[in-house]
Design a protein that fits this description.
By secondary structure, the protein is of the alpha/beta class. It is built from ten helices and 13 strands. 44% of the residues are buried. It binds S-adenosylmethionine.
Amino acid sequence: MTYLETAAQFYSEVAQTPQVGLCCVQSTPLQLPGLKVPLAMQEMNYGCGTTVHPTELGKQPTVLYVGVGGGLEALQFAYFSRRAGAVIAVDPVAAMREAATSNLATAVAENPWFDKSFVEIREGDAFNLPVADASVDIVAQNCLFNIFEPEDLTRALKEAYRVLKPGGRLQMSDPIATRPIPAHLQQDERLRAMCLSGALTYEEYTQRIIAAGFGQIEIRARRPYRLLDTQTYNLETPLLLESLDSVSFKVAIPEDGACIFTGKTAIYAGSEPFFDDAAGHILQRGIPATVCDKTAAKLASVKPTEIIITDSTWHYSGGGCC
Ligand SMILES: C[S@@+](CC[C@H](N)C(=O)[O-])C[C@H]1O[C@@H](n2cnc3c(N)ncnc32)[C@H](O)[C@@H]1O
């Protein structure tokens, strides 16, 4: 059996017998006015953060949701798009597709605004998405890509890139590891399927997104997720996992490298009214300007005493619309 088959078997089990709190860090999902989340769907909240960013969903985007789980985020995306076929949710596990179909039928009964046609569930997997090239505004996945081995993660990222329209967005939430996960845990297929041992470090995770072609990444949230303790996981020191919510844009990678926004700002503190780096960044004295990490490093090296770079807040929601 391959590790992907082990994962499919695991998700077939937890589709039929929900495990409350399997992956999620928040017990209550995002609350939206007029949205009633069925209890069974809530119990199958197997995501580690959120991929649904309400202020960015105003234009009824077409969303391809990979790994439907109990259907919670498909329903939340449908809440914003509210049109037939706007959300296509894909899953290779038959029991999971059945559970999501049943939960969404309950949601129709509990939400007057929600129509069955708003979410279409299709058989398929992350490596072979059943939609045409450049056909969707958003690809979203929550707590799935982290279970893939690195080369498979790259395949899944490239497949997401293929189906996105130019300028489209890959919205992800995944665990990341604060140091590389030791091989004995990485090789444990059940732990990997449970989103506990496949996580990459922040650097490797973001580099793989860029290597798949995405020119801009924005970090929406980064928070503690799970602690792998020494006794249970046979480690010398505990290993903290974090969850990372990100939005990656299908835009060209600039010549000097991709832009990653983590919430840093640059503040000019010199004697002139403003500082112009002649590369498109004008800083007014005393006013924080949001910059990507690449620009932050460049500005700090040009004027180390006159430009202050603030720390990453790990929350940035500055760009992109569809
Ligand atoms: C951790 S659950 C997350 C479910 C959902 N995103 C949520 O937030 O509740 C992973 C989901 O991915 C599905 N899955 C497993 N292998 C997959 C694959 N190769 N391609 C797409 N989905 C897969 C599982 O059946 C399950 O529905």
